[in-house]
Design a protein that fits this description.
Oligomer: single chain
Structural class: mainly alpha
Shape: globular
Order of helices and strands: EEEEHHHHHHEEHHHHHHHHHH
Mean pLDDT: 75
Strand content: 5-15%
Number of domains: 3
Distance between the termini: 57 Å
Radius of gyration: 27 Å
Number of strands: 6
Number of helices: 16
């Protein structure tokens, strides 16, 4: 929610985004008109109206020690905004890669994709609006997918309960929430227009730690790494859903493997989307595993995926016959791999064209070979 916040005796007028759960509105009319403020919400006993207090921009009247009425307005606004309204209005904070997550992401994108130097990229993002930067980095959709992925993983893996069974083995029992999180909107607001010190990042970090602590004794060795990979999986699937036309681009025919599941596109490709996720997790004070550990976790995840679909038995080498127990053809294999991007293999309508294209044996063979090249130590070998 946006508020017009009058601050100080200079009639500073500025839009301020509320990062609280309170609702309210400030109304400031300048010149020879009514100035009023109304605040509704927890912590404020009643609506307060201050009328007949006139303030003219750039032409305030010195009434000596007599109050103009703006002192009360400023104090109430300051309290309403957690003590930050006056500070923000008196000294507007310039958002940079140092203090804002979105601009850090934009800076890295400009360096990685546009070839800018660190200094050039830092200068370009400082003070620039999201709209200005989006025309160059196109990051907002992937950032939203990262936030959505964080929510999905927290609310899925945050449901857990275990008990000690016989012989010291842990057993699952009735589930309970240990890391329920519903702060998507607040977090996205902080990412795009807020400070890295915003409370939304603290809340997120606390929930992530609660989940890790609860799952530590029952999860595999890579539970922190799997959290990151699961969120990257959501970003990757979102990219597929927004870029279906690229599958049919003749200039990108050697990159059709990018439409396969994250587990099959290779570690380097999978980590490309971490540019959108890592700055968020760092602002939440999450410990980021190094790439060596992340790659080990990725390989483990990829091999679990392969075994679950018996892909090692579905590889057709040197003219060998297809394995009738699993896939009748390479197109069947490629279509199954593609559809596994989505829950219950339900391919979205806007991606049905890719699924249909994989029915062609030539296209399917090309994509499978590309996957094999990206995952050299998988069961694929050509």
């Amino acid at each position: 929610m946006e508020h017009l916040a009058p601050v100080g005796s200079t009639a500073c007028l500025q839009k301020v985004k509320s990062r609280t759960s309170h609702s309210g509105a400030f109304h400031l009319v300048l010149g020879n008109k009514l100035a009023s403020i109304s605040i509704l919400g927890a912590g404020f006993p009643q609506e307060k109206i201050i009328d007949e207090k006139i303030e003219t921009v750039g032409n305030t009247i010195d009434n000596g020690n007599e109050k103009t009425g703006w002192e009360d307005v400023a104090a109430m606004a300051d309290e309403f905004q957690g003590g930050k309204t006056a500070e923000k209005c008196n000294q507007a904070e310039v958002l940079t890669a140092e203090n804002n997550v979105y601009r850090e992401i934009a800076k890295n994108a400009l360096k990685n994709w546009n070839g800018l130097s660190d200094e050039e990229a830092s200068e370009k993002v400082a003070g620039a609006s999201v709209e200005e930067l989006e025309s160059q980095v196109y990051a907002e959709d992937s950032i939203k997918a990262a936030v959505d992925g964080i929510s999905k993983v927290l609310n899925k893996k945050g449901k857990i309960s275990v008990k000690m069974g016989e012989n010291g083995f842990l057993r699952r029992t009735d589930e309970k929430n240990v890391a329920e999180w519903n702060g998507q909107e607040e977090l996205l607001d902080s990412i795009l227009t807020g400070n890295k010190q915003d409370v939304s990042f603290t809340k997120l970090g606390n929930q992530i730690r609660h989940m890790f602590e609860a799952r530590h004794d029952i999860e595999d060795d890579y539970f922190e790494e799997d959290f990151i990979l699961d969120v990257l999986d959501n970003i990757h699937t979102d990219w597929i859903e927004h870029n279906s036309k690229k599958f049919f681009d003749e200039k990108r025919i050697d990159k059709q493997y990018q439409f396969m599941p994250l587990d099959l596109i290779g570690f380097k490709e999978a980590m490309a989307d971490n540019i959108f996720l890592e700055p968020i997790l760092k602002a939440a004070d999450m410990n980021i595993p190094d790439d060596v550990i992340l790659e080990q976790a990725y390989n483990d995840k990829r091999n679990r995926f392969s075994r679950s679909w018996h892909l090692e038995e579905a590889v057709f080498k040197d003219g060998a016959e297809p394995n009738d127990d699993w896939f009748s053809s390479k197109s069947d294999l490629a279509q199954t791999m593609f559809s596994s991007n989505f829950p219950q293999h339900n391919v979205p309508e806007n991606l049905q064209g890719i699924y249909d294209a994989l029915e062609d044996e030539t296209t399917a063979t090309r994509v499978i070979e590309q996957v094999g090249q990206k995952s050299e130590d998988m069961f694929f070998s050509y």
